[in-house]
Amino acid sequence: MFLINCPYCGERDQAEFSCGGEAHIARPKNPPELSDDQWAEYLFLRKNEKGVHYERWNHEYGCRQWFNLARNTATDEILAIYKMGEAPPKLKANIPATPSGEPSIGSGNSSTSKKDRF
Amino acid sequence: MFNKNKYSFLSIARNALSHHENWQKTWKSPEPKKNYDAIIVGGGGHGLTTAYYLAKNHGINNIAVIEKGWIGGGNTGRNTTIIRSNYLWDQSAALYEHALKLWEGMSQELNYNVMFSQRGVLNVAHNLHDVRELKRRWHANRLNDIDCEWLDTKKVKEFCPIINTSPNIRYPVLGATLQRRAGTARHDAVAWGYARGADEMGVDIIQNCEVTGINVKNGNVTGIETTKGTINSNKIGIAAAGHTSVIANMAGIKLPLESKPLQALVSEPVKPVIDTVVMSNTIHAYVSQSDKGELVIGAGTDGYTSYTQRGGFNIVEDTLMAIVELFPIFSRMKMLRHWGGIVDICPDASPIISKTHINGLYFNCGWGTGGFKATPGSGWVFAHTIANDQAHELNAPFTINRFSSGELVDEHGAAAVAH
Predict the structure, then answer these.
(1) CATH topology of domain A3-100
(2) Contact yes or no for B307 and A101 at CB 8 A
(3) For chain A, is the Cβ count within 10 Å smaller at the N or the C terminus?
(4) pLDDT range class, residue A118, cuts 50, 70, 90
Protein backbone atom coordinates (compact mmCIF):
# COMPACT_ATOMS: atom_id res chain seq x y z
CA MET A 1 0.00 0.00 0.00
CA PHE A 2 1.20 3.47 -0.72
CA LEU A 3 0.19 7.11 -0.44
CA ILE A 4 -1.19 8.94 -3.45
CA ASN A 5 -1.02 12.68 -3.75
CA CYS A 6 -4.45 13.50 -5.18
CA PRO A 7 -4.12 16.69 -7.26
CA TYR A 8 -7.35 17.94 -5.68
CA CYS A 9 -7.14 16.71 -2.05
CA GLY A 10 -3.47 16.11 -1.29
CA GLU A 11 -1.82 12.98 0.08
CA ARG A 12 -4.21 10.18 0.98
CA ASP A 13 -4.09 6.44 1.64
CA GLN A 14 -4.09 4.38 -1.55
CA ALA A 15 -7.12 2.40 -0.29
CA GLU A 16 -9.23 5.50 -1.01
CA PHE A 17 -8.39 5.27 -4.70
CA SER A 18 -9.19 2.86 -7.48
CA CYS A 19 -7.10 2.29 -10.57
CA GLY A 20 -8.77 2.69 -13.94
CA GLY A 21 -6.08 0.93 -15.95
CA GLU A 22 -3.78 2.11 -18.70
CA ALA A 23 -4.13 5.79 -19.61
CA HIS A 24 -4.03 7.53 -22.98
CA ILE A 25 -5.98 4.89 -24.91
CA ALA A 26 -8.06 7.00 -27.26
CA ARG A 27 -11.39 5.70 -28.48
CA PRO A 28 -11.15 5.19 -32.24
CA LYS A 29 -12.62 8.09 -34.24
CA ASN A 30 -13.99 5.90 -37.04
CA PRO A 31 -15.61 2.86 -35.36
CA PRO A 32 -17.45 1.47 -38.41
CA GLU A 33 -14.22 1.26 -40.42
CA LEU A 34 -12.24 -0.65 -37.80
CA SER A 35 -11.21 -4.26 -38.43
CA ASP A 36 -11.69 -6.92 -35.75
CA ASP A 37 -7.97 -6.80 -34.96
CA GLN A 38 -8.10 -3.04 -34.46
CA TRP A 39 -11.07 -3.43 -32.13
CA ALA A 40 -9.19 -6.12 -30.19
CA GLU A 41 -6.23 -3.77 -29.89
CA TYR A 42 -8.42 -0.99 -28.51
CA LEU A 43 -10.51 -3.17 -26.20
CA PHE A 44 -8.14 -5.81 -24.91
CA LEU A 45 -4.45 -5.39 -25.74
CA ARG A 46 -2.45 -3.63 -23.04
CA LYS A 47 1.17 -2.55 -22.65
CA ASN A 48 1.36 -4.14 -19.20
CA GLU A 49 4.70 -2.39 -18.79
CA LYS A 50 7.33 -3.46 -16.29
CA GLY A 51 8.75 0.00 -15.70
CA VAL A 52 7.03 3.32 -16.27
CA HIS A 53 3.30 2.75 -16.53
CA TYR A 54 0.90 5.61 -17.27
CA GLU A 55 -2.47 4.93 -15.74
CA ARG A 56 -5.75 6.51 -14.66
CA TRP A 57 -6.78 6.68 -11.02
CA ASN A 58 -10.00 7.79 -9.40
CA HIS A 59 -10.18 9.21 -5.86
CA GLU A 60 -13.21 7.01 -5.30
CA TYR A 61 -13.67 7.48 -1.56
CA GLY A 62 -12.70 11.15 -1.65
CA CYS A 63 -13.34 13.83 -4.24
CA ARG A 64 -14.26 11.25 -6.92
CA GLN A 65 -12.10 13.05 -9.47
CA TRP A 66 -10.11 11.23 -12.13
CA PHE A 67 -6.44 11.97 -12.77
CA ASN A 68 -3.38 10.42 -14.39
CA LEU A 69 -0.48 8.84 -12.59
CA ALA A 70 2.90 7.52 -13.77
CA ARG A 71 4.23 4.66 -11.67
CA ASN A 72 7.19 2.32 -11.83
CA THR A 73 5.41 -1.04 -11.79
CA ALA A 74 8.64 -2.79 -10.78
CA THR A 75 8.80 -0.91 -7.47
CA ASP A 76 5.39 0.81 -7.16
CA GLU A 77 7.21 4.14 -6.90
CA ILE A 78 4.96 7.00 -8.07
CA LEU A 79 6.89 9.11 -10.55
CA ALA A 80 4.38 11.77 -11.57
CA ILE A 81 0.78 12.79 -11.08
CA TYR A 82 -0.95 14.98 -13.66
CA LYS A 83 -4.47 15.95 -14.53
CA MET A 84 -6.74 14.47 -17.16
CA GLY A 85 -6.12 15.91 -20.59
CA GLU A 86 -2.47 16.74 -19.90
CA ALA A 87 0.26 15.10 -21.95
CA PRO A 88 2.19 12.32 -20.21
CA PRO A 89 5.64 13.39 -18.98
CA LYS A 90 8.66 11.54 -20.42
CA LEU A 91 10.12 9.48 -17.59
CA LYS A 92 12.69 6.80 -16.96
CA ALA A 93 12.46 4.13 -14.30
CA ASN A 94 15.00 1.84 -12.72
CA ILE A 95 14.04 -1.79 -13.04
CA PRO A 96 15.37 -3.77 -10.10
CA ALA A 97 17.39 -6.87 -10.80
CA THR A 98 15.37 -10.04 -11.24
CA PRO A 99 16.05 -13.24 -9.30
CA SER A 100 19.09 -14.20 -11.36
CA GLY A 101 20.99 -11.18 -10.09
CA GLU A 102 18.76 -10.50 -7.22
CA PRO A 103 19.22 -8.03 -4.39
CA SER A 104 19.03 -9.08 -0.76
CA ILE A 105 15.27 -8.65 -0.68
CA GLY A 106 12.88 -10.49 -2.96
CA SER A 107 12.40 -9.94 -6.64
CA GLY A 108 11.14 -6.48 -7.42
CA ASN A 109 10.88 -5.69 -3.74
CA SER A 110 13.62 -3.09 -3.61
CA SER A 111 12.66 -0.03 -1.65
CA THR A 112 12.43 3.30 -3.35
CA SER A 113 15.12 4.94 -1.25
CA LYS A 114 18.14 5.96 -3.35
CA LYS A 115 20.74 3.82 -1.62
CA ASP A 116 18.81 0.62 -2.33
CA ARG A 117 18.30 1.32 -5.99
CA PHE A 118 20.05 -0.43 -8.81
CA MET B 1 14.67 -53.30 -14.76
CA PHE B 2 16.22 -52.07 -11.54
CA ASN B 3 16.37 -48.28 -11.45
CA LYS B 4 18.50 -47.14 -8.58
CA ASN B 5 17.06 -43.63 -8.81
CA LYS B 6 13.54 -44.82 -8.11
CA TYR B 7 12.22 -43.69 -4.72
CA SER B 8 10.93 -46.70 -2.78
CA PHE B 9 10.95 -48.31 0.62
CA LEU B 10 14.15 -50.09 -0.42
CA SER B 11 15.86 -46.86 -1.44
CA ILE B 12 15.05 -45.34 1.96
CA ALA B 13 16.50 -48.39 3.68
CA ARG B 14 19.58 -48.36 1.45
CA ASN B 15 20.20 -44.66 2.02
CA ALA B 16 19.68 -45.05 5.75
CA LEU B 17 22.84 -47.14 5.78
CA SER B 18 24.85 -44.09 4.66
CA HIS B 19 22.99 -41.71 7.00
CA HIS B 20 20.98 -40.26 4.10
CA GLU B 21 24.06 -38.40 2.89
CA ASN B 22 24.22 -40.00 -0.56
CA TRP B 23 20.81 -39.34 -2.07
CA GLN B 24 21.06 -38.61 -5.76
CA LYS B 25 20.40 -35.10 -7.01
CA THR B 26 16.77 -34.63 -8.01
CA TRP B 27 17.86 -33.05 -11.28
CA LYS B 28 21.13 -32.06 -12.91
CA SER B 29 21.78 -28.37 -13.44
CA PRO B 30 23.83 -28.36 -16.65
CA GLU B 31 25.23 -25.38 -18.51
CA PRO B 32 23.06 -24.65 -21.56
CA LYS B 33 24.04 -26.20 -24.91
CA LYS B 34 24.14 -24.08 -28.07
CA ASN B 35 21.18 -25.77 -29.77
CA TYR B 36 17.99 -27.44 -28.66
CA ASP B 37 14.99 -28.93 -30.45
CA ALA B 38 12.75 -26.86 -28.18
CA ILE B 39 13.20 -24.27 -25.45
CA ILE B 40 10.67 -23.64 -22.71
CA VAL B 41 10.97 -20.24 -21.04
CA GLY B 42 9.78 -20.49 -17.46
CA GLY B 43 10.57 -23.31 -15.05
CA GLY B 44 7.34 -23.22 -13.11
CA GLY B 45 4.77 -25.98 -13.10
CA HIS B 46 3.44 -25.14 -16.56
CA GLY B 47 6.89 -24.97 -18.16
CA LEU B 48 8.13 -28.17 -16.51
CA THR B 49 5.01 -30.17 -17.40
CA THR B 50 5.34 -28.90 -20.97
CA ALA B 51 8.92 -30.20 -21.16
CA TYR B 52 7.90 -33.44 -19.47
CA TYR B 53 5.07 -34.17 -21.90
CA LEU B 54 7.12 -33.05 -24.91
CA ALA B 55 9.61 -35.75 -23.95
CA LYS B 56 7.09 -38.35 -22.88
CA ASN B 57 4.24 -37.96 -25.37
CA HIS B 58 6.04 -36.53 -28.39
CA GLY B 59 9.56 -37.98 -28.20
CA ILE B 60 11.29 -34.59 -28.17
CA ASN B 61 14.00 -34.94 -25.53
CA ASN B 62 16.53 -32.31 -26.53
CA ILE B 63 14.84 -29.53 -24.58
CA ALA B 64 16.00 -26.73 -22.30
CA VAL B 65 13.82 -25.26 -19.58
CA ILE B 66 15.09 -21.75 -18.85
CA GLU B 67 14.26 -20.37 -15.41
CA LYS B 68 15.38 -16.93 -14.23
CA GLY B 69 15.04 -17.84 -10.57
CA TRP B 70 14.93 -21.31 -9.11
CA ILE B 71 12.58 -24.27 -9.51
CA GLY B 72 9.60 -23.83 -7.21
CA GLY B 73 10.38 -20.20 -6.44
CA GLY B 74 7.74 -18.57 -8.61
CA ASN B 75 3.99 -18.86 -8.60
CA THR B 76 4.17 -22.68 -8.35
CA GLY B 77 5.50 -22.21 -4.83
CA ARG B 78 3.28 -19.24 -4.03
CA ASN B 79 -0.26 -20.37 -4.75
CA THR B 80 -2.85 -21.76 -2.34
CA THR B 81 -2.69 -25.27 -3.91
CA ILE B 82 -6.37 -25.65 -4.72
CA ILE B 83 -7.29 -28.11 -7.46
CA ARG B 84 -10.78 -28.42 -8.94
CA SER B 85 -12.51 -28.57 -12.31
CA ASN B 86 -15.96 -27.11 -11.64
CA TYR B 87 -15.84 -24.48 -14.39
CA LEU B 88 -18.92 -23.18 -16.15
CA TRP B 89 -18.26 -23.36 -19.87
CA ASP B 90 -17.70 -26.58 -21.82
CA GLN B 91 -14.29 -25.45 -23.10
CA SER B 92 -12.87 -24.74 -19.65
CA ALA B 93 -14.58 -27.69 -18.01
CA ALA B 94 -12.92 -30.03 -20.53
CA LEU B 95 -9.49 -28.47 -20.02
CA TYR B 96 -9.57 -28.42 -16.21
CA GLU B 97 -11.18 -31.86 -15.98
CA HIS B 98 -8.40 -33.27 -18.15
CA ALA B 99 -5.93 -31.74 -15.69
CA LEU B 100 -7.81 -33.14 -12.68
CA LYS B 101 -7.64 -36.65 -14.18
CA LEU B 102 -3.87 -36.26 -14.56
CA TRP B 103 -3.60 -35.11 -10.93
CA GLU B 104 -5.29 -38.34 -9.85
CA GLY B 105 -2.44 -40.46 -11.20
CA MET B 106 0.41 -37.99 -10.77
CA SER B 107 2.24 -39.32 -7.71
CA GLN B 108 2.34 -42.83 -9.20
CA GLU B 109 3.42 -41.63 -12.61
CA LEU B 110 6.19 -39.39 -11.31
CA ASN B 111 7.30 -41.71 -8.48
CA TYR B 112 7.15 -38.54 -6.42
CA ASN B 113 4.62 -37.87 -3.69
CA VAL B 114 2.78 -34.68 -4.58
CA MET B 115 0.45 -35.23 -1.59
CA PHE B 116 -2.66 -34.87 -3.75
CA SER B 117 -5.55 -34.87 -1.33
CA GLN B 118 -9.11 -35.04 -2.71
CA ARG B 119 -10.69 -33.42 0.30
CA GLY B 120 -13.46 -31.64 -1.58
CA VAL B 121 -13.97 -27.98 -2.41
CA LEU B 122 -16.98 -26.01 -1.22
CA ASN B 123 -18.09 -22.91 -3.13
CA VAL B 124 -20.34 -21.01 -0.76
CA ALA B 125 -23.40 -18.92 -1.70
CA HIS B 126 -24.35 -15.89 0.40
CA ASN B 127 -27.24 -14.31 -1.48
CA LEU B 128 -29.89 -15.17 -4.03
CA HIS B 129 -27.67 -14.30 -6.95
CA ASP B 130 -24.93 -16.61 -5.66
CA VAL B 131 -27.44 -19.42 -5.22
CA ARG B 132 -28.66 -19.07 -8.80
CA GLU B 133 -25.16 -18.72 -10.20
CA LEU B 134 -23.78 -21.70 -8.30
CA LYS B 135 -26.79 -23.88 -9.14
CA ARG B 136 -26.32 -22.99 -12.78
CA ARG B 137 -22.70 -24.05 -12.51
CA TRP B 138 -23.70 -27.24 -10.67
CA HIS B 139 -25.99 -28.21 -13.56
CA ALA B 140 -23.42 -27.22 -16.15
CA ASN B 141 -20.85 -29.40 -14.39
CA ARG B 142 -23.17 -32.39 -14.30
CA LEU B 143 -23.88 -32.02 -18.03
CA ASN B 144 -20.11 -32.13 -18.55
CA ASP B 145 -19.81 -35.28 -16.42
CA ILE B 146 -17.96 -33.42 -13.68
CA ASP B 147 -18.89 -34.41 -10.15
CA CYS B 148 -20.71 -31.66 -8.31
CA GLU B 149 -23.34 -31.54 -5.60
CA TRP B 150 -25.53 -28.85 -4.12
CA LEU B 151 -25.55 -28.67 -0.31
CA ASP B 152 -28.12 -26.64 1.59
CA THR B 153 -27.11 -24.73 4.72
CA LYS B 154 -27.64 -27.70 7.05
CA LYS B 155 -25.55 -30.00 4.88
CA VAL B 156 -22.81 -27.38 4.60
CA LYS B 157 -22.66 -27.31 8.40
CA GLU B 158 -22.45 -31.09 8.51
CA PHE B 159 -19.70 -31.19 5.92
CA CYS B 160 -17.68 -28.37 7.50
CA PRO B 161 -18.74 -28.04 11.14
CA ILE B 162 -16.66 -24.96 11.99
CA ILE B 163 -18.36 -22.76 9.40
CA ASN B 164 -20.66 -20.08 10.81
CA THR B 165 -24.16 -20.76 9.45
CA SER B 166 -25.94 -18.27 11.70
CA PRO B 167 -28.62 -16.40 9.72
CA ASN B 168 -27.59 -13.21 11.49
CA ILE B 169 -24.20 -12.64 9.89
CA ARG B 170 -23.86 -10.00 7.18
CA TYR B 171 -23.46 -12.62 4.43
CA PRO B 172 -25.21 -15.79 5.67
CA VAL B 173 -24.41 -19.21 4.21
CA LEU B 174 -27.34 -20.10 1.95
CA GLY B 175 -25.79 -23.23 0.50
CA ALA B 176 -22.76 -24.39 -1.40
CA THR B 177 -21.62 -26.53 -4.27
CA LEU B 178 -19.28 -29.37 -3.43
CA GLN B 179 -16.86 -31.06 -5.79
CA ARG B 180 -15.65 -34.10 -3.86
CA ARG B 181 -12.85 -35.00 -6.30
CA ALA B 182 -11.34 -31.56 -5.88
CA GLY B 183 -8.73 -30.82 -3.24
CA THR B 184 -5.17 -29.71 -2.70
CA ALA B 185 -1.62 -30.86 -3.43
CA ARG B 186 1.85 -30.02 -2.20
CA HIS B 187 2.65 -27.29 -4.72
CA ASP B 188 6.44 -27.28 -4.83
CA ALA B 189 6.51 -31.09 -4.91
CA VAL B 190 4.68 -30.79 -8.23
CA ALA B 191 7.48 -28.64 -9.64
CA TRP B 192 10.19 -30.88 -8.19
CA GLY B 193 8.47 -34.06 -9.34
CA TYR B 194 8.04 -32.88 -12.93
CA ALA B 195 11.55 -31.40 -12.97
CA ARG B 196 12.92 -34.78 -11.89
CA GLY B 197 10.77 -36.64 -14.42
CA ALA B 198 11.79 -34.32 -17.26
CA ASP B 199 15.45 -34.44 -16.24
CA GLU B 200 15.39 -38.25 -16.35
CA MET B 201 14.21 -38.08 -19.96
CA GLY B 202 17.11 -35.81 -20.91
CA VAL B 203 15.63 -32.33 -20.46
CA ASP B 204 18.16 -29.67 -19.37
CA ILE B 205 16.83 -27.61 -16.47
CA ILE B 206 18.74 -24.35 -16.39
CA GLN B 207 18.17 -22.16 -13.36
CA ASN B 208 19.37 -18.62 -12.65
CA CYS B 209 19.27 -17.87 -16.35
CA GLU B 210 17.18 -14.93 -17.46
CA VAL B 211 15.91 -14.42 -20.99
CA THR B 212 16.92 -11.00 -22.30
CA GLY B 213 15.85 -11.24 -25.94
CA ILE B 214 14.04 -13.32 -28.54
CA ASN B 215 15.69 -13.75 -31.92
CA VAL B 216 13.38 -13.69 -34.90
CA LYS B 217 14.46 -13.97 -38.54
CA ASN B 218 12.04 -13.60 -41.47
CA GLY B 219 9.06 -14.37 -39.27
CA ASN B 220 10.66 -17.48 -37.78
CA VAL B 221 11.96 -17.71 -34.26
CA THR B 222 15.64 -18.75 -34.15
CA GLY B 223 16.56 -18.65 -30.49
CA ILE B 224 16.85 -16.61 -27.34
CA GLU B 225 19.38 -14.33 -25.71
CA THR B 226 19.96 -15.12 -22.06
CA THR B 227 22.26 -14.11 -19.22
CA LYS B 228 24.12 -17.36 -20.05
CA GLY B 229 24.51 -16.51 -23.75
CA THR B 230 22.61 -17.24 -26.95
CA ILE B 231 20.66 -20.48 -27.16
CA ASN B 232 19.25 -21.55 -30.52
CA SER B 233 16.06 -23.39 -31.27
CA ASN B 234 13.28 -23.05 -33.79
CA LYS B 235 10.58 -23.92 -31.27
CA ILE B 236 10.18 -21.71 -28.23
CA GLY B 237 7.37 -22.02 -25.72
CA ILE B 238 6.80 -19.20 -23.25
CA ALA B 239 5.29 -20.12 -19.88
CA ALA B 240 6.41 -17.10 -17.89
CA ALA B 241 3.22 -16.31 -15.92
CA GLY B 242 3.26 -12.72 -14.64
CA HIS B 243 6.25 -11.77 -16.77
CA THR B 244 4.77 -13.00 -20.06
CA SER B 245 4.17 -9.46 -21.33
CA VAL B 246 7.83 -8.60 -20.68
CA ILE B 247 8.95 -11.55 -22.84
CA ALA B 248 6.28 -10.91 -25.48
CA ASN B 249 7.52 -7.35 -25.72
CA MET B 250 10.97 -8.69 -26.71
CA ALA B 251 9.34 -10.30 -29.74
CA GLY B 252 7.20 -7.24 -30.46
CA ILE B 253 3.96 -8.98 -29.49
CA LYS B 254 1.28 -7.22 -27.49
CA LEU B 255 -1.00 -9.43 -25.41
CA PRO B 256 -4.33 -8.86 -23.67
CA LEU B 257 -2.74 -9.36 -20.26
CA GLU B 258 -2.46 -7.33 -17.09
CA SER B 259 -0.03 -8.45 -14.39
CA LYS B 260 -1.16 -7.98 -10.83
CA PRO B 261 0.01 -9.07 -7.39
CA LEU B 262 -2.01 -11.86 -5.79
CA GLN B 263 -1.41 -12.49 -2.12
CA ALA B 264 -1.66 -15.45 0.20
CA LEU B 265 -0.88 -16.06 3.82
CA VAL B 266 -0.50 -18.92 6.26
CA SER B 267 -1.20 -19.05 9.96
CA GLU B 268 0.65 -20.70 12.80
CA PRO B 269 0.20 -24.49 12.66
CA VAL B 270 -2.66 -25.93 14.67
CA LYS B 271 -4.29 -29.35 15.05
CA PRO B 272 -6.59 -30.48 12.21
CA VAL B 273 -9.62 -28.21 12.23
CA ILE B 274 -10.80 -27.95 8.63
CA ASP B 275 -10.62 -31.02 6.40
CA THR B 276 -11.88 -29.45 3.19
CA VAL B 277 -11.39 -26.31 1.11
CA VAL B 278 -13.91 -23.50 1.54
CA MET B 279 -14.16 -20.79 -1.08
CA SER B 280 -16.45 -17.82 -1.19
CA ASN B 281 -16.70 -15.57 -4.19
CA THR B 282 -18.95 -12.92 -2.73
CA ILE B 283 -17.01 -12.10 0.41
CA HIS B 284 -13.72 -13.09 -1.15
CA ALA B 285 -12.22 -15.69 1.10
CA TYR B 286 -10.76 -19.11 0.67
CA VAL B 287 -9.15 -21.31 3.24
CA SER B 288 -7.79 -24.81 3.69
CA GLN B 289 -5.38 -26.45 6.10
CA SER B 290 -1.99 -27.79 5.10
CA ASP B 291 -0.62 -31.10 6.34
CA LYS B 292 1.66 -29.10 8.63
CA GLY B 293 -1.46 -27.64 10.24
CA GLU B 294 -1.19 -24.11 8.91
CA LEU B 295 -4.32 -22.43 7.59
CA VAL B 296 -3.67 -21.50 3.97
CA ILE B 297 -5.59 -18.36 3.07
CA GLY B 298 -5.86 -16.71 -0.31
CA ALA B 299 -6.43 -12.99 -0.66
CA GLY B 300 -7.38 -11.00 -3.73
CA THR B 301 -5.45 -9.22 -6.42
CA ASP B 302 -4.60 -5.56 -6.15
CA GLY B 303 -6.48 -3.28 -8.46
CA TYR B 304 -3.46 -2.08 -10.40
CA THR B 305 -0.68 -3.46 -12.59
CA SER B 306 2.43 -4.28 -10.61
CA TYR B 307 5.43 -6.61 -10.73
CA THR B 308 6.46 -6.16 -7.10
CA GLN B 309 5.47 -9.60 -5.73
CA ARG B 310 3.81 -7.94 -2.78
CA GLY B 311 0.37 -6.46 -2.40
CA GLY B 312 -1.61 -3.96 -0.40
CA PHE B 313 -2.41 -4.64 3.24
CA ASN B 314 -5.97 -3.48 2.69
CA ILE B 315 -6.48 -6.55 0.48
CA VAL B 316 -5.28 -8.86 3.25
CA GLU B 317 -7.45 -7.02 5.76
CA ASP B 318 -10.57 -7.47 3.61
CA THR B 319 -9.92 -11.18 3.21
CA LEU B 320 -9.30 -11.76 6.90
CA MET B 321 -12.46 -9.88 7.83
CA ALA B 322 -14.41 -12.29 5.64
CA ILE B 323 -12.58 -15.34 7.02
CA VAL B 324 -13.25 -14.31 10.61
CA GLU B 325 -16.94 -13.78 9.95
CA LEU B 326 -17.25 -17.14 8.25
CA PHE B 327 -15.03 -18.90 10.82
CA PRO B 328 -15.22 -17.08 14.18
CA ILE B 329 -13.02 -19.87 15.60
CA PHE B 330 -10.07 -18.39 13.65
CA SER B 331 -10.37 -14.91 15.14
CA ARG B 332 -7.32 -15.31 17.39
CA MET B 333 -5.12 -17.19 14.96
CA LYS B 334 -1.75 -15.58 14.33
CA MET B 335 -0.65 -15.26 10.74
CA LEU B 336 2.93 -16.43 10.26
CA ARG B 337 3.85 -15.62 6.69
CA HIS B 338 2.44 -13.54 3.90
CA TRP B 339 3.60 -13.15 0.32
CA GLY B 340 2.60 -12.18 -3.18
CA GLY B 341 3.05 -13.54 -6.68
CA ILE B 342 2.50 -11.83 -10.02
CA VAL B 343 -0.40 -13.24 -12.02
CA ASP B 344 -1.19 -12.45 -15.65
CA ILE B 345 -4.89 -11.86 -16.04
CA CYS B 346 -6.82 -12.11 -19.31
CA PRO B 347 -9.94 -10.01 -19.87
CA ASP B 348 -12.10 -13.16 -19.89
CA ALA B 349 -10.30 -14.92 -16.99
CA SER B 350 -9.37 -17.80 -19.30
CA PRO B 351 -5.86 -18.77 -20.41
CA ILE B 352 -4.13 -18.32 -23.76
CA ILE B 353 -2.42 -21.48 -25.04
CA SER B 354 -1.61 -20.55 -28.56
CA LYS B 355 0.59 -20.17 -31.61
CA THR B 356 1.54 -16.66 -32.65
CA HIS B 357 2.13 -14.94 -35.96
CA ILE B 358 5.85 -15.71 -35.48
CA ASN B 359 6.57 -19.29 -36.59
CA GLY B 360 7.80 -21.47 -33.75
CA LEU B 361 6.89 -19.04 -30.98
CA TYR B 362 4.17 -20.26 -28.64
CA PHE B 363 2.53 -18.74 -25.58
CA ASN B 364 0.98 -20.39 -22.56
CA CYS B 365 -0.21 -17.55 -20.37
CA GLY B 366 -3.16 -15.68 -18.94
CA TRP B 367 -3.89 -18.30 -16.29
CA GLY B 368 -4.47 -15.42 -13.95
CA THR B 369 -5.33 -16.36 -10.41
CA GLY B 370 -6.02 -20.04 -10.98
CA GLY B 371 -3.28 -21.72 -12.99
CA PHE B 372 -2.04 -24.20 -10.42
CA LYS B 373 -4.98 -26.58 -10.75
CA ALA B 374 -4.35 -26.83 -14.47
CA THR B 375 -0.60 -27.54 -14.23
CA PRO B 376 -0.49 -31.05 -15.77
CA GLY B 377 -3.27 -30.40 -18.30
CA SER B 378 -1.70 -27.14 -19.36
CA GLY B 379 1.65 -28.80 -20.06
CA TRP B 380 -0.08 -31.66 -21.86
CA VAL B 381 -1.87 -29.46 -24.39
CA PHE B 382 0.98 -26.94 -24.71
CA ALA B 383 3.42 -29.78 -25.50
CA HIS B 384 0.99 -30.98 -28.15
CA THR B 385 0.74 -27.47 -29.60
CA ILE B 386 4.53 -27.08 -29.75
CA ALA B 387 5.23 -30.57 -31.11
CA ASN B 388 2.58 -30.45 -33.86
CA ASP B 389 2.50 -26.71 -34.48
CA GLN B 390 -1.23 -27.10 -34.00
CA ALA B 391 -3.53 -26.80 -31.00
CA HIS B 392 -4.78 -29.88 -29.19
CA GLU B 393 -8.58 -30.08 -29.33
CA LEU B 394 -8.69 -29.08 -25.65
CA ASN B 395 -6.84 -25.80 -26.15
CA ALA B 396 -8.20 -24.97 -29.61
CA PRO B 397 -10.71 -22.50 -28.07
CA PHE B 398 -7.94 -20.77 -26.10
CA THR B 399 -6.10 -18.98 -28.91
CA ILE B 400 -4.94 -15.38 -28.99
CA ASN B 401 -7.34 -14.85 -31.92
CA ARG B 402 -10.40 -15.13 -29.71
CA PHE B 403 -9.90 -11.51 -28.71
CA SER B 404 -10.40 -10.48 -32.34
CA SER B 405 -13.14 -12.98 -33.17
CA GLY B 406 -15.05 -12.29 -29.96
CA GLU B 407 -15.25 -15.96 -28.97
CA LEU B 408 -14.29 -15.24 -25.37
CA VAL B 409 -14.55 -17.90 -22.69
CA ASP B 410 -15.85 -15.80 -19.84
CA GLU B 411 -14.99 -17.58 -16.62
CA HIS B 412 -15.08 -14.66 -14.20
CA GLY B 413 -17.80 -16.49 -12.25
CA ALA B 414 -16.02 -19.82 -12.04
CA ALA B 415 -12.65 -18.32 -11.25
CA ALA B 416 -14.29 -18.96 -7.87
CA VAL B 417 -13.34 -15.72 -6.22
CA ALA B 418 -13.74 -12.44 -8.02
CA HIS B 419 -10.37 -10.83 -8.62
Answers:
(1) Folate-binding fold (3.30.2270)
(2) no
(3) C
(4) very low
